[in-house]
Amino acid sequence: MVPEIVVLRWELWGMRGVQLKTVAPAVRPAFADTIIKGDCVAALEQLPAHSIDVVFADPPYNLQLAGGLTRPDQSLVDAVDDDWDQFASFEAYDAFTRAWLLAVRRVLKPDGSLWVIGSYHNIFRVGTMLQDLGFWILNDVVWRKTNPMPNFRGKRFTNAHETMIWASRGPQSRYTFNYEAMKAFNDDVQMRSDWLLPICTGGERLKDAAGQKLHPTQKPEALLARVMLASTKPGDIVLDPFFGSGTTGAVAKRLGRHYVGVEREQVYIDAATARIAAVETAPAAALELLRGKKAEPRVPFGALVERGLIQPNEIMTAISGRHQARVRADGSVESGSHTGSIHRVGALVQGFDACNGWTFWNVHRNGVLTSIDALRQIVRDEMAVAGG
Amino acid sequence: MVPEIVVLRWELWGMRGVQLKTVAPAVRPAFADTIIKGDCVAALEQLPAHSIDVVFADPPYNLQLAGGLTRPDQSLVDAVDDDWDQFASFEAYDAFTRAWLLAVRRVLKPDGSLWVIGSYHNIFRVGTMLQDLGFWILNDVVWRKTNPMPNFRGKRFTNAHETMIWASRGPQSRYTFNYEAMKAFNDDVQMRSDWLLPICTGGERLKDAAGQKLHPTQKPEALLARVMLASTKPGDIVLDPFFGSGTTGAVAKRLGRHYVGVEREQVYIDAATARIAAVETAPAAALELLRGKKAEPRVPFGALVERGLIQPNEIMTAISGRHQARVRADGSVESGSHTGSIHRVGALVQGFDACNGWTFWNVHRNGVLTSIDALRQIVRDEMAVAGG
DNA sequence: GCACAGCATGAATCTCGTC
DNA sequence: CGACGAGATTCATGCTGTG
């Protein structure tokens, strides 16, 4: 699935141009929305490099459960499970972690990101390995449980949280973060690194034929939903290398994302398949993400002058009233000896390195001091009606 | 050595009282309640082996900050750029961590325990090294900050917490944990692994002659108080190998514990000495008054969608029936061309500057128009236990 | 003296597209 | 790849100055 290069012809306010643009294929790859049976590292070799947008991983930390650990060279690790031989156990776990993280790193897109969830038993080793392999940690996010299991023996604090590490492929990656959507979600305050959510119980918890919980560590869908709403866009492909009961797949489908799962146990594959089949994708209108200004079409300041929303020679003022600037016909402005863009002059008159001229400068309209950003919004609204 | 009866007037974190108390003359080693000047590893060689009950360590975080960071108002953030936080590589940081942890391990009593605080920059490496050296992790405790610095560029989640690792010297250690005291402290429910506390500001924050913060990373006394009340007994000796502004010493003295500090900078030693001299030891009765107060938990609108109490694409209406809005999966809403949070869209459709979306919007439930504020109460009740 | 507005600041790995 | 320039972006709290 090679990105396609298309020729875009555009016309905007009487200006025309041609632009080359790469367009991701609308056709989803064959591996999308499938569960691959097998060991994590071996199964991931079936996927093409740089084909995954986001990874969510809930790796095992009990070495007995992990079983069959392999080193990066595929040789089997002789896992020691005696309590006294911690070093050998940790070494085995590190080899296992290194192997699956390398496999995941290969299939992750350069601008993709990765989530790993764990507890104090394993998360420190995972975090260290992530850093050693060149991943760039963006946040550690704490899932605070409303209803954790109490500490029955009264020997420690109630273990009431788990830790997720969110990392990009490297320091230069331009990962996805839906900042505006998260902020709206959180009543117009930035989303914090601590999330309060109940554990997975009740009807959401999958049961086996005997009525017992099917999977020991089934994660709540709300947790995965927040992960995907924060770090993916509709249509993205989310890989879960330890698929288990398929929470990642169910939430991906519900939110209009694609999933790829890797799972060794047929019983989990069967349960997850049935579970995902019963999920309906939310309507497209509900999946639109609130987008910030960065995602809106760029409107140059000159366009406002061109459209007559601001007159050549008109005086703009700062809110404080302390600064003024004169608009010139070409969209540049001058203030005393300073000339340049609205941003540059705004910075110069304040003695700053930078300034957002859109929010700094104002003009009088109907006797009211009006931000030029509000005038820009008029143009943007017109563009939206015209189909952007 | 007859026990003496004294009258104690106490004031502790805003509370006051008077108490009669018998004071038993304590035998303490010569190094108790002193600050050793020098490099951490070298200085610790002066202490006898197995002489310390609990260690609290706040090592350099290795922040790896690149350029400067400005707030939206263009003011410069005063970053931690001190020499002591600079390391050439992860390898160098690991070597440093290994060295001081080994030095600390030598002086720790067999049944002693150790706390280390850090952020995602370093805490994973510290945790891994602890495990590799044979320490036994008891809990990872999350310090949730009520007032963290925001993420100014909107590129990540607000980094709103730091992580403390609490570990015993080994799996067989019989460490101190004051379970009943912690439970009483926490209104008779088990103390959880997530603690909500403000950062150190205001009068508690030490200032230099110029009125600037003396130390870049001074920790709040309330944090240390909870650490010591949980894991030490009166008269215990607490070692802080990165003493800094001396919070550990001040709290140890206030709570009737002894401290040993190691610090390289004379300016910090002087400030900590003066600070600790001004501290009075509190009577036990004062400590019983320490209760975690629970604020009403904040429930963002997105959480209602996340929890399934409101469906994506569902229509909300104003009481008047004049306005409608559609809910999207990310917790944002849209009404015509208006998009944003419940509050913002509520304001926009009415032409107001502000609106409380919780009381403005309603949904139909069992044929009845129901305020979304009522749905919020359902979630709030579930969350009350977790302490906001 | 009090109320209120405005300012200052905190362990931070904090831009992106185009030429 | 680097340089350049447009332009996007903050929450809780405590202190200071003013009326």
Automatic annotation (TrEMBL), chains A, B:
Q: Matching InterPro entries, A to Z?
A: DNA_methylase_N4/N6, DNA_methylase_N6_adenine_CS, RAMA, RM_Methyltransferase, SAM-dependent_MTases_sf
**What protein family does this chain belong to?**
Belongs to the N(4)/N(6)-methyltransferase family.
List UniProt keywords, sorted A-Z: DNA replication, DNA-binding, Methyltransferase, S-adenosyl-L-methionine, Transferase
Q: Which GO terms describe its cellular component?
A: cytoplasm
Per the UniProt entry, what are the Gene Ontology biological process annotations, in alphabetical order? DNA replication; methylation
Name the PANTHER family for this protein.
Answer: RNA METHYLASE-RELATED, TRNA (GUANINE(10)-N2)-METHYLTRANSFERASE HOMOLOG
Its signal peptide is none
Query: What is the designated name of this protein?
Result: Methyltransferase
All copies of domain DNA methylase N-4/N-6, residue ranges: 52-272
Q: Domain RAMA: where? A: 291-382
* Organism encoding this protein: Kaistia soli DSM 19436
Q: What is the reaction catalyzed?
A: a 2'-deoxyadenosine in DNA + S-adenosyl-L-methionine = an N(6)-methyl-2'-deoxyadenosine in DNA + S-adenosyl-L-homocysteine + H(+)
Q: Could you tell me the superkingdom of the organism this chain comes from?
A: Bacteria
Tell me which EC number(s) this protein carries.
2.1.1.-
> Which Gene Ontology molecular function entries are recorded, alphabetically?
DNA binding; N-methyltransferase activity; site-specific DNA-methyltransferase (adenine-specific) activity
